[in-house]
Write a structure and sequence with these properties.
This protein is α+β, with helices and mostly antiparallel strands and 517 residues long. It has two domains: 341 residues, Thiolase/Chalcone synthase (Peroxisomal Thiolase, Chain A, domain 1, 3-Layer(aba) Sandwich); 70 residues, OB fold (Dihydrolipoamide Acetyltransferase, E2P) (Beta Barrel), CATH 2.40.50.840. It has 15 helices and 17 strands. Strands 1-8-4-2-3-5 form a six-stranded mixed beta sheet, sandwiched between helices. β16 and β17 form a beta hairpin. The protein is globular and about 75 Å long. 56% of the residues are buried.
Length: 517
């Protein structure tokens, strides 16, 4: 069948194997694996999934890994870490690839890597490629609490293409200076901006966020690679704060945000179709990338609508167009789900899908329930997409991978239907997005303004501080925070919807602080 399809030749890239790993602390089989070991376990699984001996890793041309949280954010590594993560994975597999790639940060990067190395295979620069990643955040935290001693230090030899953390493109110094210190706060500002555009009450919007994520829970419960059991999570009360679902940052409760306390790994094995056939991989196991697109968004404060990311929507439509598919022709989806807006922006606002769509909006169970292993989550989504494509031969799975603060989006469409390689070109859609100059926020401001969006950061004592993004009478945008000592201002913002309220802003030493007028 494949030989009769125009353009399908021995240089056509195919996904031939996928693997996943999990190391649950509460399980009898708990190993206390490092992030490297989790990636290696998944990689061995990918070879076995392809029907291959893992010893064949010695023939890899390229081994590329996602970036761990420790290597992304410069976080302390209390038990040490690898100084060369890709080579650590390669060493354990008995591999010495020509290229070892240490990808930059971003939840979009697994899909970016698939697109990049499919293109490398198609042009003859590689034949056999492994993509892998793993996080052991839960083990590290558990060991610290228990006073246990672990040694994850490694310093393998070998060249590496270290692409750096790559945070410069989406971190905003102005926002960070005012207390937007976490992705949760950034997404919360975007979430409340979306609510403002939709004109919904807090209660109605909380219920809507819950409706987006409620169908994810049974998928996570049935996924053997989920990071932890979620039987104690009540699907009917996801957006409602209670004893087991505390506030994180308005409008988010604990069960609406990605779970990063995980021990998970994933891997994807790529090959040219010629190499795959020579290795004996069955035709039915070969999965083709039918469409791929990626796009980069403006910084959060520069977006005309802070509650939307047109880049994600454009990337979805561009990938579908390349694959010559309508959204109705797609059989399964996995939308990156670190927070509800990441799903809503792409799936419901962008593609018109309902949270109750019978096809579902996740293949894994989502980052809050399946687990959010840092930059590597979408490797798991791609693994599930490959499994779906094989189970339902001829059907298509769409993976939407998000990075930063709705900052970067990468989309892939997968199927066992043979298709010749078409080099994706995302430049036109990026040029169209960049044509809008966006908004330049004020660095400092004193006077009155009207709240455009807001969030309240909570700690164990309750509302700690509030952030507002507001507009002056002239329409200029600014960001301000409640004074450090004024927890009552944060309490007011939490108890009384801050959208549309007037604030008095004072600037001192480059910091805008506000009080409700």
């Amino acid at each position: 069948m494949a030989n009769s399809v125009p353009g399908v030749d021995d240089r056509t890239p195919v996904l031939i194997g996928v693997g996943q790993s999990v190391d649950r602390i509460e399980a009898e089989s708990y190993h206390a694996w490092s992030g490297v070991e989790l990636a290696v376990e998944a990689a061995r699984g990918a070879f076995i999934d392809a029907g291959l001996d893992p010893a064949l890793a010695s023939g890899l041309d390229v081994l590329a890994t996602t970036r761990t949280f420790e290597d992304t954010l410069g976080l302390p590594a209390p038990f040490g870490k690898s100084s060369n993560y890709p080579r650590s994975v390669a060493l354990r597999l008995g591999a010495d690839p020509k290229r070892a790639v240490w990808e930059k940060a971003g939840g979009n990067t697994p899909q970016d890597l698939v697109g990049e190395f499919c293109a490398e295979i198609a042009r003859g620069a590689a034949d056999f490629v492994l993509l892998a990643g793993g996080e052991a955040i839960s083990t590290v935290r558990q060991a610290q609490k228990a006073g246990a001693q672990l040694d994850f230090s490694e310093a393998p030899e070998g060249s590496v293409e270290d692409r750096g953390a790559g945070l410069e493109g989406w971190r905003d110094p102005l926002a960070a200076r005012h207390g937007m210190a976490s992705p949760t706060l950034a997404y919360a500002l975007a979430e409340n901006a979306r609510r403002a555009r939709r004109g919904e009450s807090r209660a109605d919007y909380a219920a809507a966020m819950g409706r987006i994520f409620a169908p994810f829970l049974p998928v996570a419960r049935n996924n053997p690679y989920s990071a932890a059991a979620v039987d104690n999570v009540d699907a009917t009360r996801l957006g409602e704060a209670h004893a087991h679902n505390r506030w994180i940052a308005d409008p988010y409760t604990l069960h609406l945000v990605a779970r990063d306390l995980v021990n998970q790994g994933a891997a994807v094995l790529l090959a040219s179709r010629g190499r795959a056939r020579a290795l004996g991989v069955p035709e039915a196991a070969m999965v083709y990338l039918h469409g791929h697109a990626r796009a980069v968004e403006k910084s959060l404060l520069a977006r005309p609508d802070m509650g939307a990311a047109p880049s994600a929507i454009a990337a979805c439509h561009t990938a579908l167009a390349q694959a010559e598919l309508s959204v109705d022709a797609v059989g399964a989806f996995d939308f990156y789900s670190c927070f509800p807006i990441a799903v809503a922006n792409a799936a419901t606002d962008g593609l018109g899908l309902s949270p109750e769509d019978a096809r579902g909006l996740t293949l894994t169970g989502g980052l809050p329930y399946f687990g959010g292993p840092g930059n590597g989550y979408s490797l798991h989504a791609i693994a599930e997409a490959v499994a779906f494509a094989r189970r339902d031969a001829g059907r298509f799975a769409l993976v939407g991978a998000n990075g930063g603060y709705l900052s970067k989006y990468s989309v892939g469409l997968y199927s066992t239907v043979p298709r010749g390689w078409t080099q994706p070109d995302s430049a036109p859609l990026q040029a169209a997005l960049d044509a809008d100059p966006g908004i330049a926020p004020l660095e400092s401001y004193s006077g009155e303004a009207q709240v455009e969006t807001y969030s309240v950061q909570h700690d164990r004592k309750g509302p700690a501080y509030a952030l507002v993004v507001a507009r002056t009478a002239q329409g200029e945008r600014l960001i301000a925070r409640s004074p450090t000592e004024a927890r009552e201002t944060a309490q007011d913002a939490h108890e009384n919807d801050a959208l549309g309220r007037t604030v008095t802003v004072t600037c001192e030493d480059g910091m805008n602080t506000f009080a409700f007028a």
